[in-house]
């Protein structure tokens, strides 16, 4: 078995024994997504989105809009915390793996593989819980945007873990997705053109895709998904650079 | 101490395995209004095959910093480090993954060392028997006592029979029997040609060392042939010494 495969399989076992992460995976989707659908008042609300390439305001049920927003918040929050835990635990010890002979790229591949696996599970569980109450108009576009925003937040969690300690990192990763997706990208709050700085946040492009493909019958946000993927790649390059610096033998 | 290298010297060519030249290290901070601390200035050192080398010094003198630079986990600001051969490193705080079992820990690091599954298994059982942790092989690291964690920490450094062994206070938490076993092991390895380097605080250990380097004022002094105790050992007992 190659070093990368060994580090990946053992890394998966290690994360499966992280009971905090497993508990978050069970508790958060139900308490965030299911409750969002259950307690939100069933009234029509105006939602700004793209229809036939034009930004228009459409009326949609508040539970659907709230559900569409709470699903990526849940996934981004858990993925972000997973990335944070992964980096905090690995920061010192992965340097020892380098002394033992692991190449930085082998450790990075294994760790990113573990994060990707966690993100897939988190996204799957979040979307699965959402589907009980709500069917997006274009499920696979919605899932694609969910994956992009979750992986992006997972990587941001790793970056935060490289700089901050566990407690400060946890606060940051709890607050950031809430503010970004739950406030600055939420069409229930933002009824006009978003400020320029809101467009720089990680949730901007993916949430545009989710609002469009979740709540309207046409797909008008292909370009937004491309931008979201570009944003993800940028964060990935930055994270790889930081991780490489941590794990390479000097 | 010089005499004790005779047999070890015969076993090997007394080749230099680690050479550090003019090492400098200052810990800075990216935050404003915080001070930077200069730890090493112009530190030189050589470690040869078959030697048991002690690195001593007062608290905060830079012993661990020096070892981390020699191992390669910390980058020096300037100077060079040349290493020849495989390295085993036992850090002061056990750097292990808490949620892995002892067996998984051996597999993970053994794979890094390029060992086969059989070699990993053999090393695991040999060291478990020697250091008396056979009953804990299926335990998770976070379920072990401090002493047993330290045994695993040491074993991971030893499992691939390295050419250079770097140990940062490796016996912390050991009971007396394990402490003695550790020294038997270190002497066996040195007799086989391994360069064993350890950070040591205990005065009585110095008779076991072939060479002693003292880290003081950012520099490294060879104090092997000095009569009596070093400044560091005296200062650790709270005595005033002349610089």
From TrEMBL, chain A:
A single MF term (Gene Ontology): ABC-type transporter activity
Record bears the keyword Membrane: yes
Transmembrane segments: 20-39, 65-87, 108-132, 138-164, 171-190, 225-244
Domain of life per record: Archaea
One Pfam assignment: ABC2_membrane_3
Main location: membrane
Limits of the ABC-2 type transporter transmembrane domain: 96-240
Keywords of the record: Membrane, Transmembrane, Transmembrane helix
Membrane topology: Multi-pass membrane protein
GO cellular component: membrane
Subcellular location per the Swiss-Prot or TrEMBL entry: Membrane
Stated name of the protein: ABC-2 type transporter transmembrane domain-containing protein
């Amino acid at each position: 078995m190659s070093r990368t495969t060994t580090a990946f399989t053992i890394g998966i076992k290690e994360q499966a024994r992280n009971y905090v992460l497993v508990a978050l995976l069970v508790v958060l989707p139900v308490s965030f997504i299911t409750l969002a659908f259950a307690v939100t008042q069933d009234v029509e609300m105006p939602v700004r989105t793209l229809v036939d390439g034009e930004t228009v305001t459409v009326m949609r049920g508040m539970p659907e809009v709230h559900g569409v927003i709470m699903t990526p918040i849940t996934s981004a929050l858990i993925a972000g915390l997973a990335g944070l835990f992964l980096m905090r635990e690995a920061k010192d010890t992965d340097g020892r793996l380098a002394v033992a002979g692991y190449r930085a790229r082998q450790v990075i591949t294994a760790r990113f593989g573990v994060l990707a696996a966690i993100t897939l599970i988190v996204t799957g569980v979040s979307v699965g819980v959402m589907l009980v109450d709500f069917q997006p108009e274009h499920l696979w576009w919605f899932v694609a945007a969910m994956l992009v925003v979750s992986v992006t937040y997972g990587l941001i969690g790793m970056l935060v873990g490289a700089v901050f300690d566990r407690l400060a990192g946890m606060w940051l990763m709890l607050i950031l997705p809430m503010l970004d997706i739950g406030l600055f990208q939420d069409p229930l709050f933002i009824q006009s053109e978003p400020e320029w700085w809101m467009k720089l946040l990680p949730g901007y492009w993916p949430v545009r895709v989710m609002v469009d493909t979740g709540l309207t019958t046409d797909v008008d946000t292909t370009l937004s998904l491309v931008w979201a993927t570009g944003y993800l790649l940028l964060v990935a390059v930055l994270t790889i650079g930081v991780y490489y610096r941590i794990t390479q033998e000097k | 101490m010089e005499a004790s290298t005779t047999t070890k010297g015969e076993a090997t060519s007394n080749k230099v395995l680690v050479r550090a030249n003019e090492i400098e290290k200052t810990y800075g901070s990216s935050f404003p209004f915080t001070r930077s601390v200069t730890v090493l200035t112009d530190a030189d050192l050589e470690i040869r095959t078959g030697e048991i080398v002690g690195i001593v010094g007062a608290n905060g003198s830079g012993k661990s910093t020096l070892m981390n630079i020699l191992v390669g986990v910390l980058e020096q600001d300037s100077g060079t480090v040349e290493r020849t051969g495989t390295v085993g490193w036992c850090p002061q705080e056990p750097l292990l993954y808490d949620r892995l079992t002892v067996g998984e820990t051996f597999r993970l690091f053994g794979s890094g060392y390029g060992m086969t599954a059989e070699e990993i298994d053999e090393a695991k059982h040999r060291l478990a028997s020697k250091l008396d942790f056979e009953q804990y092989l299926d335990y998770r690291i976070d379920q072990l006592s401090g002493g047993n964690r330290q045994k695993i920490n040491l074993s991971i450094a030893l499992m691939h029979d390295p050419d250079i062994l770097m140990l940062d206070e490796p016996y912390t938490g050991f009971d007396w029997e394990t402490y003695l076993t550790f020294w038997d092991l270190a002497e066996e390895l040195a007799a086989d040609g391994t360069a064993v380097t350890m950070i040591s605080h205990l005065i009585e250990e110095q008779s076991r060392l072939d060479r002693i380097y003292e880290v003081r004022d950012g520099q490294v002094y060879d104090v092997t042939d000095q009569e009596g105790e070093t400044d560091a050992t005296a200062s650790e007992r709270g005595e005033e010494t002349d610089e």
